[in-house]
Design goal:
Layout lengths: L16 H9 L6 H33 L4 H50 L2 H5 L3 H13 L2 H28 L1 H7 L3 H38 L1 H6 L3 H53 L5 H42 L21 E8 L10 E8 L4 E5 L6 H8 L7 E6 L2 E2 L5 H5 L2 E4 L8 E2 H6 L7 H10 L3 H5 L8 E2 L8 H15 L3 E5 L7 H15 L3 E5 L11 E6 L2 E6 L1 H7 L2 H10 L2
Parallel strand pairs: 3-10, 3-11, 6-9, 9-10
Antiparallel strand pairs: 1-2, 1-4, 4-5, 7-8, 11-12
Helix pairs in contact: 1-11, 2-3, 2-6, 2-11, 3-5, 3-6, 5-8, 5-11, 6-7, 6-11, 7-10, 8-10, 8-11, 10-11, 15-17, 17-18, 19-20
Length: 592
């Protein structure tokens, strides 16, 4: 199965810039009232901004020129009042938009996390956890400015530009044409820059994901790294990834910086053209000082929003790659979903049937792990699965739990095709234990209760006693209230397994799957837990995968799995008597 590791860049998914932006901005629709109020505030602010140059023109031409100082003071008082009000409105709209943007980010993050939980094992098997984390955390965080500025920059600045152009045209078309003569150059430069910039920001996002994936993997495997004194090698890898990350960022930023230079150049050309047209071509005798100063203010009011829009455009190009990566995950369908006509699985009795089942992984459809496998398990039977690594033992139990779909044939539980029942009703009646059971950060009690969230403290302790975990738990510093770090740090491997047994026992599953569940437990601990396992197996259909053959001697039947199917089937005594594949496995373990 191909895996995208931290050594490889993820493939870019081109969904179309306009489509991605519209999808992102659609989240704003849920906050129509807040957005409309912010737009009202900003309309007031834009109005004050547009009036300011006119007040300057009036002050110079009408009041200062004629010596009307009382009128000038009244105009100044009005200007101060309007501008102070504008400042308050700006503060208010910033607060509202921050609240809206944070709510949207939380919504997107929750939507992404919820969707990821529905994805099948193939999704997680084919990419590092760190790359998934980079999308849930880093990519989503980068969208905040884009969402906020869509309302606070794009709309008001666009309106400001239109109003400024209209006022300038009304006052002097000639001066307006001179002021805006450099617009074609700016448009061409921005288009060329965004084409290059988007590609480079895509590369940067990929390098960020690679770095996150490596750090997550490195920290998770720190015990191995220190055990084999591999710190120097991992340092080299980290430095290489950091250098790639830095290089990608610098490359993208250099292109973005060029956009500001283009705007500044065009702004300067526009200002020079304005004053050349007004002073040299038209002549100062044809234009009042107030009008020329007002035009100077308006041209600044024109180019400043252009600069803001270019910065916003840069933000879009910068973060569009992040939005594409988020929506790529949201659009990734799960191969394992409830069928449209799926029904609730009734209480399971425990009958399991494989009806000519064939299975191959989706990324290797030509390689069958299982080929035309058929068997029937009666309720309450304990079935042991043995065979070489990679023979398909775990695949069989994964198909029973419907973690994968069979490529051919049917998997039936109590006569019900597992594809025709809901996943929750199916899996909620199953208990699955693996060799490396995960423990969450939290108390011992919380970890056991994960098996059944509504369990009482008495039921938790009863489950622990049943698998002989109670004794060691009570020896911990705070007993059941002892805090555990992630993965159960501070506990032995055997103790972690005992807690996992207690968690599974608490769930009271109708079908139990033990996948190498006792391989990490020492012989003394195994004798203790075997009594709990016997209790757990009693009255339940059970599948036990084991390389340690001593743990499956009491199984009702043993399946020897190899070459894509069941080579042998029978009790331990029957299979030993055959002197076939099971006999050879047995003798390889016990002959010495």
């Amino acid at each position: 199965m191909p895996v995208n590791s931290f050594r490889e860049d993820e493939k870019s998914i081109e969904a179309g810039k306009a489509k991605t932006l519209l999808r992102l901005f659609s989240y704003l629709l849920a906050y129509k009232k807040e957005i409309l109020f912010v737009l009202l505030l900003m309309a007031c602010c834009v109005g004050v901004t547009l009036i300011n140059p006119l007040m300057i023109e009036t002050a110079i031409d009408d009041h200062i020129g004629s010596g009307d100082y009382p009128g000038l003071l009244r105009l100044i008082a009005a200007a101060v009042f309007l501008n102070l009000t504008m400042v308050l409105f700006i503060k208010l709209r910033m607060r509202i938009m921050n609240q809206v943007c944070n709510s949207i980010l939380m919504e997107i993050r929750q939507e992404l996390y919820t969707h990821i939980q529905t994805l099948d094992f193939h999704f997680f098997d084919s990419r590092p956890t760190g790359k998934i984390l980079s999308r849930i955390i880093g990519d989503i965080n980068s969208l905040k400015d884009v969402l906020g500025n869509c309302v606070t920059t794009l709309i008001p600045d666009f309106i400001t530009i239109c109003c400024v152009v209209a006022i300038m045209l009304a006052k002097s078309p000639a001066l307006t044409a001179a002021s805006l003569c450099s617009l074609p150059v700016m448009a061409s430069g921005m288009w060329f820059i965004q084409v290059l910039s988007h590609k480079r920001w895509q590369i940067f996002r990929k390098k960020s994901a690679n770095l996150n994936a490596f750090v997550h993997e490195d920290l998770s495997g720190m015990r191995i790294i220190q055990s084999f004194t591999a710190q120097e090698e991992t340092n080299k890898t980290f430095l290489r990834l950091v250098e790639e990350h830095r290089t990608a960022y610098n490359s993208a930023v250099r292109i973005n910086d060029a956009m500001g230079s283009v705007i500044d150049l065009c702004w300067g050309v526009g200002c020079a053209a304005l004053y050349y047209m007004g002073i040299v071509v038209i002549g100062v005798e044809q234009i009042s000082v107030g009008t020329l100063l007002a035009f100077g203010s308006y041209i600044n009011m024109f180019w400043r929003p252009i600069m803001n829009l270019s910065n916003f455009y840069t933000q879009i190009i910068t973060n569009l790659a992040a939005a594409e990566r988020i929506f790529e995950i949201l659009d990734t369908p799960s191969e394992i979903t409830d069928e449209a006509d799926a029904v609730e699985m009734p209480p399971i009795a425990g009958s399991v049937t494989f009806d000519h089942v064939t299975f191959a992984y989706s990324d290797a459809p030509g390689v069958n792990v299982l080929q035309n496998v058929s068997f029937h398990i009666h309720p309450g039977e304990t079935i042991a699965l043995v065979g070489p690594t990679g023979a398909g033992k775990t695949t069989i139990v994964n198909l029973i739990s419907r973690f994968y779909n069979a490529s051919g044939g049917r998997v039936l539980i109590d006569g019900q095709d597992v594809r025709r029942v809901t996943l929750e009703s199916l899996r909620s009646q199953m208990g699955i234990m693996t060799q490396d059971n995960f423990l969450f950060s939290g108390t011992v009690r919380e970890n056991i209760r994960y098996g059944r969230l509504d369990a009482t403290d008495e039921e938790i302790e009863s489950a622990a006693k049943a698998v002989n975990a109670h004794e060691f738990i009570m020896k911990l510093e705070k007993g059941y209230d002892t805090q555990l770090s992630e993965r159960g740090g501070g506990l032995s491997v055997g103790q972690r397994q005992l807690l996992a047994f207690a968690r599974t026992f608490l769930s009271m599953p109708r079908i139990l799957i033990l996948d190498e569940a006792t391989s990490s437990i020492d012989t003394k601990t195994e004798l203790l837990v075997q009594q709990g396992i016997d209790t757990l197996l009693k009255g339940r259909t059970s599948f036990v995968i084991a390389h340690r053959l001593s743990t499956i001697q009491k199984a009702d039947r043993i399946f020897v799995i190899d070459q894509g199917g069941i080579l042998e089937e029978g009790t331990a005594k029957e299979l030993l008597a055959k002197k076939g594949a099971y006999y050879r496995l047995y003798m390889a373990q016990f002959a010495l």
